[in-house]
Design brief:
Elements: H1 14-20, H2 23-26, H3 30-46, H4 52-71, H5 84-96, H6 99-102, H7 109-146, E1 150-155, E2 158-164, H8 165-190, E3 192-193, H9 209-215, E4 220-221, H10 225-230, H11 233-259, E5 267-268, H12 287-310, H13 325-348, E6 350-351, H14 353-359, H15 367-375, H16 381-398, H17 407-410, H18 421-424, H19 427-432, H20 442-466
Parallel strand pairs: 3-4
Antiparallel strand pairs: 1-2, 5-6
């Protein structure tokens, strides 16, 4: 029997009945539906709608359903359940008799799904935080192992200036820490309980919404019943945060792919996360990284789907909101799997630090340091830039680097060049001259790495304390 069958005179079209069912995907909310139902049952008992005997019967039935969910893969096979709420009610009637029919007093599926989704997103954010921190730990460990090894940094995909390998890795760590913060902010904003909002106007029974909120570890009850039953801002914010996270993972994957090519040869990818070619025996393809890069599009697509779904909806609940569930579920699973495999690749890959450092000393990446050398001799930087540019052009014609020019040759471009120029453009000097907060000078990077490690440790401790 449908939960709404009293009003209907004719049966649903059979194909439409199957099309409009959401149980095929919202069954993953059952654990959260059980938790919310426990809280609602206790609230009904406090106001006398349920007896203590009925409460005991319902809680035992809910425990039995939870146990079946965990132990029996076939438990969720139900061709008649319209949605997760209908499925649970059917099982409660089966296990607790008429008490199962009483549980829906004072509540609506509109508030139930709003609550279940919040509980799902909240729990998923906690799970994503675990995997985010695992990836961050892998990045920090690789940065630590890289020591003072250098590599070329790029702008416009062209070699620009040398940086420490650790500095490059910590750039991604900063992105991921922002992702962690964004998801934490989302979690705080969504953590208000819709139970007690009814279908749209508020519960018809005087249930204690504060007690229900505490029971489910929400911050407080939601403030407006119309907003509570129709709001999906939290889902949009969650998936948009995952889309940004996916973009960061995609950028990292792209660089790892490029740097693993024979032309660069800076990264040796782990075979455990790579596959070969069915045609070319020599190939080792970066499949894990390519999938991480590709699946970021799913996250962006999910965020777009959510926004388009809700952009013109009148208040309050509309069946369209059923379409907001699958993008949330898919984005959550995609982000978790991407992070797990990203951490695996990061832990297992190897850097050719000697080759990276050698590349950091070619291609005139000390040119800006050369211009800075002249500017310190009171030559205007724009003039110094022009002087060094001419020297680079001359080197290109001669097939040499700036450091290969004799002092006599250098003074053809400016009389300010002196013997100390050569020590000013060594790799160590070029790295060391970026001695500002956030710069790539070794001492600054060592300090930044230590701070990142401390931040990761603090987040780990907070996560464990919350768990």
């Amino acid at each position: 029997m449908k939960m709404w069958s009293g009003r209907a005179r004719l049966p649903l079209d059979p194909e439409f009945e199957q099309w409009q069912r959401s149980f095929v995907f919202d069954k993953r909310l059952l654990a959260h539906e059980i938790a919310a139902s426990r809280a609602h049952a206790r609230a009904l008992t406090r106001i006398g709608v349920l007896s203590t005997t009925e409460l005991t019967s319902l809680l035992q039935a809910l425990d039995r359903i939870q146990l079946s969910l965990e132990r029996d893969p076939q438990f969720l096979d139900d061709s008649e359940a319209e949605d997760v709420h209908h499925f649970l009610e059917r099982r409660l009637v089966e296990f607790a008799g008429d008490a199962g029919l009483k549980l829906h007093a004072g509540r609506s599926r509109n508030e139930q799904i709003a609550t279940d989704l919040r509980l799902f997103v909240r729990a998923t954010i906690d799970e994503i935080h675990v995997h985010l921190l695992s990836f961050l730990e892998a990045l920090a460990a690789k940065a630590q192992a890289a020591g003072d090894a250098a590599m070329p940094a790029h702008t416009h995909l062209q070699p620009a200036e040398p940086v420490l390998v650790a500095h490059w890795l910590l750039a991604y760590a900063e992105m991921l820490l922002r992702d962690h913060s964004r998801l934490s902010d989302c979690r705080a904003r969504l953590n208000f309980c819709p139970l007690g909002s009814g279908a749209v106007a508020g519960a018809t029974l005087p249930i204690d919404r504060d007690a229900i909120s505490r029971d489910l570890e929400f911050t407080a009850p939601s403030a407006n019943s119309i907003d509570a039953t129709s709001d999906r801002d939290f889902a949009v914010e969650f998936v948009q945060s995952l889309a940004v996270l996916g973009t960061h993972l995609s950028r990292w994957a792209e660089e790892m792919i490029v740097f693993s090519t024979r032309e660069f040869g800076w990264v040796r990818l782990p075979e455990a996360y790579s596959t070969g070619s069915s045609a070319m025996p020599q190939k080792m393809n970066p499949d894990a990284l390519e999938l991480i890069r590709g699946k970021s599009a799913r996250l962006v697509g999910a965020a777009t789907a959510l926004l388009v779904t809700i952009k013109s909806l009148p208040l309050a609940y509309n069946k369209d909101l059923q379409e907001t569930q699958e993008p949330v579920f898919d984005a959550a699973a995609t982000a978790i799997e991407s992070l797990k495999h990203a951490a695996g690749v990061m832990r297992s890959c190897e850097f050719d630090l000697a080759r990276m450092s050698a590349a950091a000393q070619l291609g005139f990446m000390n040119a800006m340091a050369a211009a800075t050398y002249l500017s310190r001799k009171r030559i205007p930087f724009r003039s110094a830039h022009k002087i060094v540019g001419k020297a680079v052009s001359h080197c290109l014609q001669q097939g040499c680097e700036l450091g290969d020019l004799s002092l006599e040759q250098l003074r053809q471009f400016s009389p300010e060049f002196d013997q100390d120029f050569y020590s000013a453009i060594t790799l160590d000097a070029v790295l060391g001259c970026h001695d500002v907060a956030g710069g790539t000078a070794p001492a600054r990077v060592h300090s930044a790495l230590q701070q990142i490690q401390q931040r990761i440790s603090a987040l780990q401790e907070a996560l464990h304390a919350h768990a």
